[in-house]
Fold:
Amino acid sequence: MNDPADAGHRIELRSDNAAGAAPELLAAVAGANTGSALAYGGDEWTRRLEARASEVFERPGVRVFPVVSGTAANALSLSALCPPWGAVLCHESAHILRSECGASSMLGGGLQLRGLPGPDTKLTVDAVHAAFASTNWGDNHHAQPSVLSLTSPTDLGAIYQVDEVAELAAAARERGLRVHLDGARLANALVALGCSAAELTWRAGVDVVSLGALKNGGLSCDAIVCFDDAAAAELHYRTKRSGHVASKMRFQSAQLDAYLADGLWLRLAASANATMARLTAGLDRLGVELVVRPAVNMVFARLDGPTADALAAAGVDFYRMGPDTVRFVTSWQTTPEDIDAVLAVLERHRA
Ligand SMILES: Cc1ncc(COP(=O)(O)O)c(C=O)c1O
Structure:
């Protein structure tokens, strides 16, 4: 059997960000390319998107703000929820803290991000209570906890159950904190949990969601989904002030509408989750140790250096997270054949 590289082919497992745009979303862009339309969101696609979000999230009046990246969605959401003297409590591994270059602090006028410990990259109610206990409430020498930000799936691919979100949100409310969800891969979490978008978000106490589309077939569009009127009123100005009100918003809105329509977002995510399940079943068969058992489309696994080198040379792209740890991420574009080819390479080349 030949390696993919022998046929000049490479298999993409570095990131779902490396995948292309889904044909359905490209078709939606083409469909919106009909003559002129009012700029800056005054178009029919943006109106339709908000109606669609209200239907999908089962709540009237949901506000949606399209943005160009997950970082923008997070930073703008947090800036609208947290005062400049406030602190956002998050897990110490959270993308907002580790991988966004302080964007939330910048757009939030200096708000502080406070990372808390927790097993499996997830926050616990105890950690939130401990953060409250160590806060000097009302003391103007200290940032005041104002928002709890959850990431699900987490940066290591773990997910919160619906009741975990509800318990954490209830703990946050005890001290008047508002709740943000970084849902860069929200669809993958929904598919894994088999719950509705409403159950995992506002019904569990979430006020604002960063809704990922980019990693799941979108083309330069993620969105802020807002269930909180006060935050929406702020976002109206904050999105513009930070340069996130696209003049041709119709092309973002058309994609997001198509994404949420007829369960497309869930089908794309289900495909990515399924190819990851196929990969991890194969890794189990080959006796490869998994650092964390994946709930969605991302796995961290132990591979020694020579095996990782052989896998890369054979035509598989992935990230090395340490001397003997690799990360594989599947996307809507990954096929079962890709996964079988990767497993065949591993079987042949394992050192
Ligand atoms: C959990 C999570 N949140 C937010 C982001 C930020 O998205 P972007 O890279 O589009 O800014 C990422 C990107 O990888 C992510 O994994």
